[in-house]
Amino acid sequence: xxxxxxxxxxxxxxxxxxxxxxxxxxxxxxxxxxxxxxxxxxxxxxxxxxxxxxxxxxxxxxxxxxxxxxxxxxxxxxxxxxxxxxxxxxxxxxxxxxxxxxxxxxxxxxxxxxxxxxxxxxxxxxxxxxxxxxxxxxxxxxxxxxxxxxxxxxxxxxxxxxxxxxxxxxxxxxxxxxxxxxxxxxxxxxxxxxxxxxxxxxxxxxxxxxxxxxxxxxxxxxxxxxxxxxxxxxxxxxxxxxxxxxxxxxxxxxxxxxxxxxxxxxxxxxxxxxxxxxxxxxxxxxxxxxxxxxxxxxxxxxxxxxxxxxxxxxxxxxxxxxxxxxxxxxxxxxxxxxxxxxxxxxxxxxxxxxxxxxxxxxxxxxxxxxxxxxxxxxxxxxxxxxxxxxxxxxxxxxxxxxxxxxxxxxxxxxxxxxxxxxxxxxxxxxxxxxxxxxxxxxxxxxxxxxxxxxxxxxxxxxxxxxxxxxxxxxxxxxxxxxxxxxxxxxxxxxxxxxxxxxxxxxxxxxxxxxxxxxxxxxxxxxxxxxxxxxxxxxxxxxxxxxxxxxxxxxxxxxxxxxxxxxxxxxxxxxxxxxxxxxxxxxxxxxxxxxxxxxxxxxxxxxxxxxxxxxxxxxxxxxxxxxxxxxxxxxxxxxxxxxxxxxxxxxxxxxxxxxxxxxxxxxxxxxxxxxxxxxxxxxxxxxxxxxxxxxxxxx
Amino acid sequence: xxxxxxxxxxxxxxxxxxxxxxxxxxxxxxxxxxxxxxxxxxxxxxxxxxxxxxxxxxxxxxxxxxxxxxxxxxxxxxxxxxxxxxxxxxxxxxxxxxxxxxxxxxxxxxxxxxxxxxxxxxxxxxxxxxxxxxxxxxxxxxxxxxxxxxxxxxxxxxxxxxxxxxxxxxxxxxxxxxxxxxxxxxxxxxxxxxxxxxxxxxxxxxxxxxxxxxxxxxxxxxxxxxxxxxxxxxxxxxxxxxxxxxxxxxxxxx
Lengths: 698, 254
Prior knowledge:
By secondary structure, chain A is an all-alpha fold. Chain A has 21 helices and no strands.
């Protein structure tokens, strides 16, 4: 068969539209389901209002930020006279700066729309899932998973549509980089802001509710309970959705940039190798759409097994499709197929090894629970140690994928670094399925909270518990998956950065004998820890304010604890939102400003070292914090099942301390770090031509 | 407004109140301004009950609503040796309140639990409050501590609960503790081993009352006895509590 590029771009767009169409269909299907009793709807209404209020504030802040950055991009790249546009044969009639600014805005907008759709359906699906759980497990599972699929499918659909349309209009991979930068900037703020929000509410609700007052979790008497449930949505739905959207787009754009530059250099077909990642993503969308059909449970079945089955089947379908593509179009290099397969296989393995460290069926969680009988200090030490160990399989996986993809690509006549980028794309190509499973988690978590708050009965809560346990596993797998994919993506972006620099006459030389490079490495290495510290301090500072507010409400209105007076939920929601958004300025500067400062002041080599340092500590910190936090959380839950003394025992008290420490680890700092390193790599690649021209040291 | 009498076990006190049992439990657990917390265990006492030892009518005269019409929360009638003097026939339901003010009502049962093989763990609640291991059944334990004239360690009346020992009841050395939240487990095992192997029927594990009794560890129920009778208040199973008193169950299982 002939390989017509335009048709493939159209197929990409059609795939994206199909994915988006199914997402919209599922959205309306979810909305048609029974919204439940008046009491349940009232509770869901509080959560919905809180989520909407937060999103409104977040998007208002981001609109301002996006406009400012897009104006800057427009000015800077217009002054650059669109050299890149000229190089890659742009046919755009607009100045290149305007194209970049528009691409940036489009990227931000697509990411925002995907997050908004996910949140919108999540806050409607939670109450419907709780209601469906009153009838049977299968129906509740189907509803919550399909609601999660709205985010997963909308996300990949919008991403592929956005990238394909921009490339189709501009024929310039650099313009797609603008799209990616827009998506990443929004993702960073959505993820970090959502992470700060959710843990502020969670910690404050627990410390006052459970520890001071002694009321159980999700008790409607707690003024922070709605903020806590809103946090599940803003952190794990909108935040995680934006995060994967960012990694997904960044991995594609890195390969597009490499395809464009290497294609020209190595006498390969540049257009083919530029659009190949979009083709792979289209296959991933189709595989996800098919794989989703296999996710179902029967009454008494295991939702976790159903989600895992869906992931594995999607992988298999995707691999078969890759072979089918190769058979149908022999022009496609075999190295691309095998590199993509290496990526997806390693991605799944990494996801499941993350599960090993956070699942209470395995030794790390059991051992951490056991040592909790000796107090919280040893709980922290043991959990932290297992967190450190958990880095190893993921890093080995990343190394394996990197080397395999590199040498397979080289062996097939492709640049090795292109193979690494393709491995990242392969890993993320089935994000439609992965995100669907991930977004299912907060929906069922919320459903359980609503069932609890609305007094929907023991049977509903029991079924919601079964659904919730599967959500935790899916969450752990997604985190391992997204961090590893981000690691491969930034490696490819780093190569793209070097190529862009080389195209502008600057050959990046990373030598530890150069003091400038060493300075860059150290500055880069401290950025992820500093970012983590700032976001976690934001959680503690905001939680402190919220704790005061919860105490004030309990003291001012005795009827709250008696259950005769409704707390002022909105006040806590507002405090959490305000605190989260106000805490983002410095972390945002670190991500966007610091690479530019290093680049313009210390020069391209230092910026190369900076990115290297940030990538390595970023990946390590992200894995450590995500896995240690998940491990502490599940160690506490394991004890609550009646092990090592059960609830109220000394072991339980120690595990609660571990869980509280782990909360901002796993839900605030850890998962934001992959977005941080992606944004820093994108900023560097985007501004590489300008940094190449203007820097103090060389 | 109706005036109720309550006999609080911790601290031992007889109280008149205009609050019904749930309201009183909530008030007693978290205070008027909700700034305190702590579980409460109390009996409702027959309002017709009178005893010259307690100045009940004087207390009744003081138990009037506040100026703003708010019901009187508590008038303390006695705070000393209440259990010793109260007639057990006057005790009605037993109420267990959690630290955040959720209250569960237990009704007395005429059926005392059968003697079960194995070791026993008793949390004495009033008038003294040690934790004791024993080879004796609840009835035998009550007989020993209240009615056995040969025993040196006696009290005129007692309230206690039997706590769950799980596998430790039969195998104190190697049995799994799993869902048992008791602190200092090595000492508990050692005490159990001693009563199993030595010629003693009881041994004190802890001198002081734990500030919070884990309601979920109560094996079969609460016993209150004096020289003339023993009353038993059975505790519903965890499954029953979960299905029929979910809110209380959640609070009690924190």
